[in-house]
From TrEMBL:
It comes from Armillaria solidipes. The keyword Protease applies. The keyword Lipid metabolism does not apply. One of its GO terms (biological process) is proteolysis involved in protein catabolic process. GO terms for molecular function: metal ion binding; metalloendopeptidase activity. This is Peptidase M48 domain-containing protein. Binds 1 zinc ion per subunit. Keywords: Hydrolase, Metal-binding, Metalloprotease, Protease, Zinc. Residues 106-173, 191-263 form the Peptidase M48 domain. Belongs to the peptidase M48 family.
Length: 300
């Protein structure tokens, strides 16, 4: 017990020093400075390369769809539009990264998108690499360009705010596995809120309907309910470090995420109104206001 308290006190003392703090890009949130950044990034790139290469194996059940596939084209168009609207970089070539490209990948602002034919709806950014993967099943689940844009903008937000680097840096704190898992739960949930809010900003700047972010969360929640048992089985079999943390622990309650987004919608619509390229989207705000007026009251 004394040892645990001592470790916690030491970690707290180190993190309270001003030189050990930095600002999260764009949001300005204060966090513990990411230590050994270059080393962590190198490992993340190597892990991403290995994952992508595994999809090229003949025995892999998940394959990378070709660049000329309609879903690859649609996904690329959406990501390019989001990146351009917020000056976040550009979408790069679709080849698998090589060892010699590691340094360039880390230093420039080039992103990559791979559409996979995996059986489950999923989208993620391969930690710390600006590489986004999304399954064809996710396209089929959402079936709406604005909702797909919301999903991809959320993943872009995770990468822009360097959530993966932050999580991996925290692993260097010498705390017990159980305590760190509990601590990670709160970090994961905060990251989701941050990615929701920043993703909403990115998609609205790109002239997508901000209300699609709420519809996307509802759709994914319905999917989680129907696939919960299967997803939990897959996570258990994956051998992840924190596989004991369930998705409902790493992600805030879906109702809370929606309430948080609803508070941000006026600012998102203001972004639409003040962006000349988005003049054709003014009806989104009117549609949302009508929906709010016509919604049943809480007391009903």
């Amino acid at each position: 017990m004394i040892t645990t308290i001592g470790i916690i006190y030491t970690a707290y003392s180190e993190t309270t020093k001003p030189e050990n703090w930095e600002e999260v890009p764009i949001t300005g949130r204060k966090r513990r400075k990411v230590a050994r950044r270059k080393e962590i990034q190198g490992k993340l790139v190597q892990s991403a390369r290995e994952e992508l290469l595994s999809y090229t194996e003949p025995t892999s059940r998940t394959k990378i769809l070709p660049p000329n596939h309609p879903l690859s084209k649609l996904g690329s168009d959406i990501v390019s539009r989001i990146l351009s609207a917020s000056d976040l970089g550009r979408l790069g070539p679709r080849h698998i990264i090589k060892d010699s490209e590691d340094e360039n990948l880390l230093e420039d602002r080039e992103w990559r998108l791979y559409v996979l034919d995996g059986p489950l709806p999923n989208a993620c950014v391969l930690s710390g690499t600006r590489i986004i993967t999304i399954t064809a099943s996710m396209f089929n689940l959402l079936r709406n360009t604005d909702m797909i844009a919301s999903c991809l903008a959320h993943e872009i937000a995770h990468e822009v705010t360097e959530h993966a680097l932050e999580k991996n840096s925290l692993l260097q704190i010498n705390l017990s596995r159980g305590f760190l898992a509990w601590f990670y739960r709160d970090i994961f949930q905060w990251h989701e809120y941050e990615a929701d809010s920043l993703g909403l900003l990115f998609m609205s700047r790109a002239c997508y309907n901000p209300t699609a972010a709420i519809a996307t969360i509802k759709r994914l929640h319905d999917m989680d309910l129907s696939l919960k048992e299967l997803i939990e089985t897959r996570e258990h079999q994956s051998g992840r470090l924190f596989k004991n943390i369930r998705k409902e622990d790493t992600h805030p309650p879906w109702e809370a995420r929606i309430k948080a987004l609803e508070k941000l919608l006026p600012a998102a619509f203001h972004s639409l109104e003040t962006t000349p390229a988005c003049s054709h989207t003014k009806q989104y705000w009117e549609m949302w206001k009508r929906a709010i007026r016509n919604a049943p009251s809480q007391s009903a």
